[in-house]
């Protein structure tokens, strides 16, 4: 009888612990409760529960800790200061998959706030265990580990380098090939975060053979996966010409152009970012994109979206046109200039207008033909008004002034220059008058020329 | 001293005479001089005038002469200078004419050469035009292809939503199967006041009634028969984690012993041989064997027997059964025709050799027939 009573006491205690931990985990999902929980000292109560005998209590306690640390960085710092991390790391190696998932969640929640916290995670040796988790059979564990690694590598180049040194990249490339969509998404996002900091890191990712797999998965119908893949490829391609060429060699064109027609806005944005990063390096790469019909696709994409989604597309047109006069002519014949002038007039944000003005300047600056094509669409008065208006930001004013100057210096289309005579400020007016003189002088001298019908050569 | 004195007296007399006349003399002298003077002046003036005129003419003539001579000298000198100058001018003009000719010829050559060079090596205008045309064609093609792709995606999405709706409606019809109208009682969708029944009525007629959904148990990959009975579903006998205490008092009443009941309840299944083996057991055994062999192989390529080593000739079909339009369908398609569209499923018939249960009841039946006493 007394034995039964003793056992009952233990049962009650276990029930109480389970209930407490489950309630805390549930309360931690709502942000308004977390302040109260923090003031009630939940951290110090949860810490011994991590070492509990019953596995479910351990897992739920880890889950609750993760949710708390996820909320803000003070709690994350409290987790670090409370020496919870070494215990988590130690038990990550041994426990079952639910615990591994919860522990990896805690590490991710702590590491996402700031570089110092991520450094603290690395200091307690979590990287090796996380990499071991990446080799686990359960896809949920792999996903949690990859997510944690991605958040750690996001902050700066040293942390990324530490993640790469722990040998995470080949395993992430293997994770990308797994059948589960969520795991692929997270692995792609982690690779994108690793390769965005420096060319050496991007080179490491490419050496692990990631580009071929990433390029194959562009055809996948899932929108969020496509977002991450395109973002990863653009982070790789942005650093140098060799990396961009390697991305192109993975045969992304013309498949990437279908992503420009996707329904999801961010897929379109990331696809145009990728094309921009490739186009900006050399004229040959721009030529490749042009030959694959990329310019038309990007122009259509610009026409179909609004706001910040358009920005990479506009910049891509500017980069392509900047390389050479032929490429600028290609942009003109693909009907890019009317689209850019529409962007310039209807976008409310200043930085997008500045990008549009810059792109138009790059198109029109090469020869009188180009300047004429830009002037015919009546964009010059719009640019002038942007330059003159006091509400435009300084960046917008500088860019529109440069654009006007470069277009005007080549423009010989007089009907477009005439409005400038009336309302341009003096520093622009002098260019306008210079252009008028260039156009009209030969006319004058044709009628009053010397006897031999020759033009005086010095005027 | 007489002579002197006379003379002196004469002189004194003359002097006195002269003195007496002197005043008149003075006047007369003065008047005569003055008249003469006037004439003299007049005549002098006249003479001067004549002389000056004449001298003037003389000098003028002389000057004219000098002018003539100077003009001749200057003329000659200037013509000499002019001829020199003219020669210089001619030389210069000739020189400029030659230079202009050379320049014009050089301009022609340079014009041709520069045009050729730019067109051939730097910038081929026709090539650029052609390239731009090709690029715009490629752009149009890409735009068309992308539009088609977007259309296709939309169509697929629409189809998927329609299918989902259809499935939902089907499921609902299956759930509401009891609302079907019978001969006696018209259902709600088959009201007698309507001309023809509601489409839901037809759907309900076509639908199969829904069986109650059993909660799906997530099983491991190989489910063998023997652990079928150890089911953990809630409807079976509940199993608590805590074992019941050992010395619990027996419940009052005609209840059987709990251990016996549990033993009987949880007795493991003893299936017959025929049931215990899967129907394609032979095939699975072969696969297992093949897998074991493959595990043990060092190299995947099998050794080929040497007897077939020389048999590497390509098979040449006979002329009667082959034609240049492909293989003849005389033997295969016309004698035994296959129509894949009529097939119910894509798997072929399996050869199944079930086991027989001759010995399954051995030692398990109640009768003692055949037992050795």
UniProtKB/TrEMBL annotation, chain A:
Name used for this protein in its record: Sperm-associated antigen 6 isoform X2
InterPro entries in the cross-refs: ARM-like, ARM-type_fold, Armadillo
Source domain of life: Eukaryota
From TrEMBL, chain B:
Coiled coil: 128-170
Gene: LOC101395109
Source organism, top-level taxon: Eukaryota
Entry protein name: Spermatogenesis-associated protein 17
Compartment(s) of residence: Cytoplasm
Cited Pfam families: IQ (PF00612)
Keyword Coiled coil carried by entry: yes
This protein's record includes keyword Cytoplasm: yes
Lineage: Eukaryota, Metazoa, Chordata, Craniata, Vertebrata
Entry keyword set: Calmodulin-binding, Coiled coil, Cytoplasm, Repeat
Predominant location: cytoplasm
